[in-house]
Amino acid sequence: MKQLSDCSANNPFIQTRSLLAHLKPKWMKLLLDYRCNVSSLCFFFPPDLLAVPKHPYAAMENWGLSVFVEQKILLDAEVSSSSYKMELTMVVVHEICHQWFGDLVTPVWWEDVWLKEGFAHFFEYVGTDFLFPKWNMEKQRFLTDVLHEVMLLDGLSSSHPISQEVERATDIDRVFDWIAYKKGAALIRMLANVMGQPLFQKGLNVRTRLRCRPGNEAASVLVNPFILLPFQAMRSEGRDIDIGEMMDRWTLQMGYPVITVSKNQSEQLLTHYITVSQEHFLYGEEVRKNTRSGGLNDSAWQVPLTVAVGNSSSVCLESLLWINNRTETHRIGQMDDNTWLLGNVNQTGYFRVNYDLHNWKLLMQQLHTNPQIISVGNRAGLIDDAFNLARAGYLPQGIPLQLIGYLPEETSFLPWHAASRALYQLDKLLDRTDEYRLFSDYVLKQVASRYHQMGWPTNGPGSEGSVLKASYQTEELQRELIMLACSFGNKQCHRQAVAYISDWISSNKNRIPPNIRDIVYCTGVSLMDEDVWEFIWMKFHSTSAVSEKKILLEALTCSDNSFLLNRLLNLSLTSDLVPEQDVIDVIIHVGRNPQGRNLAWKYFREKWDVLNARYGEALFMNSKLISGVTEFLNTERELNELKEFIEVSGVGAGPALPRALEIVEGNVRWHRLHRRQFYQWLRKPPSSTFG
């Protein structure tokens, strides 16, 4: 990386350089292994990395000089959290990946942008995993941050195939979205697991040797090189698998299936067979009826379904089944009434799995009695699938709530992270309802014992200096529990946060552990008086650490004071006090605050012309803003306001506004169809909530 400033020890550029000095040699070795033999004709020159104060994108992989906005590369090891270090590492790895997937070999046309972005996004997890194995990026964090997140978008009827036609220059921006990045990565990961890592790596080796010199490729090149290998047809369970045909099903049609697995109830096929069916997963029963009548997505997917058979003490059997039709019957082994089925083992496939209610009950009993029998990835997957299946109307509302009743016994970060994401989704829907306290009390009940057991981190001087020594899983579980406890109103959590802020103000020494500073700042601002807001505002302007500036600014949006929130919104857009790239985050975070929701929504509509002119050309910016201020809307009045806004001002926003409209319609529909059932379950006495 180029040194752009003075050589003082506190220079954040030097801090970043020391991290990259560790990253680059190991990362080069990993990609050389994947790309081609060192002795081949492929050559790679590692890029210099440049931090700039203002940039329309997070980073850009220019050949030889990758450019990053400051927040995505500058690291102050004394104040940056482990999550920030992880994010920085992944952005750097992503852009270095693009030196192969994007710069050395480029898609032949824009419709295949997902190839370069999907590979770079997938390998940023593989590469970070290689550098820091304790972070468990590819097998664990990928699930919650990529797979679960993109399936939320791809379950909408306003989604689109990953490969999109591009006929005009104005079409280009829309192909750069999370479907291209995250779905692309998820499909590549699924393919790698279907083929097996050795064959997948060998195929990529052949592919990149064929393209050693800079050039272009079409999507078909992803699979065609495998024809050159001696094992040109994959055989699994006695079947020839055409990888090209399989991937076409996933890339040329939108969305993904929900796979329903159940024991066969036929008297002739009682103990050895299962019935498997697939249908296009979409949120909302009404939406599914309309799309069926419209003929959307008539073709089935070719699904690599792994199925485990287990009981209370062990997993007895695991099989790979290829599902090609709407409904199929498969023989998998001996089962009885106490045998449970588990689909999509370790969540390597890009689909949701549903079961009959008896099997859900068996899985819940397993989690409550001995959760370790089910892998940590599948525990997280069961939670995410259950909440989303219930939200879409495939399951009763009580099933996911029953499922997470085991969480007080959960010791791993990933299932807690999956649960917290689902609970925050519900919180958006419920935080303005009359019976909200029923929900918040239920969440606090699940969190209490593990939160008190984990406690709060200590801030040992100098203990944050080495990325390599970070005990990421423990730190992140502790952080997740503190965030849930403070967000949903745990009094002890509130007292601890206030004590930290008070100590900082009185001593002018920030002794708050970096990994939880954002939680403490936000909690303190929400609970304490205006003087604390002014103190945080002052610290925001005086600090030079970009990661610290970010969380201080976001903390200012947590106030319950409407005057302060309005002041912050106006200062952000009309002054130089807030960096231009942070204005969108201010508006979004004010909207996340129940006290600021109406302010942010009103401000967004009033300032739309200014915001659209400033951010409309920057990838992801407009989409991020629109989704951020609308995803919390859930009343008929707010839905009508959104429709009116789209009709009057929605020109030029691309697909973001139709997607926002569908999400808000879904929020309103959930309230109409499911809120009553949801609260009825929460009102049950604890002794009757399971079974």
TrEMBL record:
GO terms for cellular component: cytoplasm; extracellular space; membrane. The keyword Transcription does not apply. The keyword Protease applies. It comes from the Eukaryota. Its cofactor is Zn(2+). Keywords: Hydrolase, Metal-binding, Metalloprotease, Protease, Zinc. GO terms for molecular function: metalloaminopeptidase activity; peptide binding; zinc ion binding. This is Thyrotropin releasing hormone degrading enzyme. It comes from Kryptolebias marmoratus (Mangrove killifish). The lineage of its organism: Eukaryota, Metazoa, Chordata, Craniata, Vertebrata.
